[in-house]
Amino acid sequence: MFKILRQSIRTGVVTNSFPAVVTEPAEGFRGKPEIDFARCTGCDACADACPTDAITLAVVSHTERTLSLDLGHCIFCGECEAACPDGIRMTKEFQLATTDKSALLTRARYKLDEKGTFEVSGMISHTPSDNETLDEIGAKLKEKIRRLFGRSLHIREVDAGSCNGCEVEITALNNPIYDIERFGVHFVASPRHADMLVVTGPVTRNMELALRQTYEATPKPMLVVAVGACAIGGGVFGSSYASCGGVDTVVPVDVYIPGCPPRPEALLHGILVAVDRLPQRDTDQLRE
Question: Distance (Å, rounded) from C-alpha 116 to C-alpha 130?
Fold first, then answer.
């Protein structure tokens, strides 16, 4: 026991402390891909390189094309940047959680000009908020939890066919570095004790019924958070005889957190977004 105490004293406090200290992603961290639509020539190299069809090029006519980037399907692999280093760069942005799935889509229209090249004629873009520090997010979350739940937020995590990459990041929320319980957030073993369901994986057919039953067993009002590319749109698994292709094909989803997997700060930000939505939560019946 004394050895443990000595080691603890030597290590000191490793948990992020207040006031906030900027948490910079590690060197080489790949966040949201950013396409320079103005420099894009519509060559389709990035779309061909994308393993999940997060980037698509649709030929509307011989004079018009549409390039789309769906962050919900993106696994942040960086293959698009390798295929087109002049037009795409991987940023370090990771706070991409949203209540509106369509907000994860960025689309640009291209028309053939007089020179015979395609130029941007219009676009729809979603710009995420600047990355906040862990403690800034935590302070907001703690206050909202206190106001809405009285003391704490209880989460039931459901693995609906994940590769366990997202589970590793979710588990990290409980380690001494992030210590999510200091914000009043606790993971529970039963959906009957939960205020929120955090779901990972593309929802395999064998987990479809279990997810429905878990949703039905959770007291209302409650929240559902889809974590990771697989939970949002099927990810690398897609939709097939073995998988449903995303959580919202089975139960209603309140918040989508992109990433493969999303880092702990992104998860915390997503939980904050979800809690912020609770007062206007519509507890609809399960989708048929």
Answer: 38
- Residue 120's CB is within 10 A of a number of other CB atoms, namely 15
Q: Which residue from 154, 137, 178, 157 is spatially nearest to 225, judged by alpha carbons?
A: 157
Domain boundaries, the chain: 33-124, 134-280
CA separation for the pair 202, 245 (Å, rounded)? 5
Q: How confident is the model at residue 123 (pLDDT cuts 50, 70, 90)?
A: low
3-state secondary structure of 94: coil
Segment 69-106, tens digit of pLDDT: 999 999 999 999 999 998 899 999 988 999 889 889 98
Nearest Cα to Cα of residue 228 among 193, 194, 270: 270
Fold designation for 33-124: Alpha-Beta Plaits (3.30.70)
Domain 134-280, second-level architecture: 3-Layer(aba) Sandwich (3.40)
Strand locations in 141-249 (E): 153-159, 185-187, 196-200, 223-227
Check if the beta carbon of residue 57 is closer than 8 Å to that of residue 87: no
Q: How far is CA 18 from CA 133, 135, 139, 163, 270, in A?
A: 10, 6, 9, 34, 21
What is the pLDDT, as a whole number, of residue 124?
56
